[in-house]
Prior knowledge:
By secondary structure, this protein is an all-alpha fold. 65% of the residues lie in helices and 0% in strands.
Amino acid sequence: MGRIINTESTGKKRNQLMRTSAEILRxxxxxxxxxxxxxxxIAMLVYCLREINAGIDQSAAAWEKRDYWMKAEEFRQxxxxxxxxxxxxxxxxxxxxxxxxxxxxxxxxxxFSEIKVTKLTRNPTLWKGCYHxxxxxxxx
Length: 140
């Protein structure tokens, strides 16, 4: 019996979410005004960053399981920014503080500088309705 290899690993999922986020940032940089599409894209960024953050502890736990405590802690520190920026974006969205958007985008862009987006592969329907869904979470 052979080894079972998980093809849907946390790292692979994180890379996909980072790519999605990078494409959204590219599209956002081309927008002039805050419209419904921009709100949906920012909400999708919040969801991507939340999911990345959820996978961080899972990945770190795998290192800890092998007694690589330092490596796990370094990993957590390297990804600490995810929850922080996710919260800031969500607060900006909920309070409609659009003047904060450029500052937050400038903060986010360096985190995605290694991802080269030469072709946009994510379909805009991916983030349609995300803004409304995010606002609904508050009432649940």
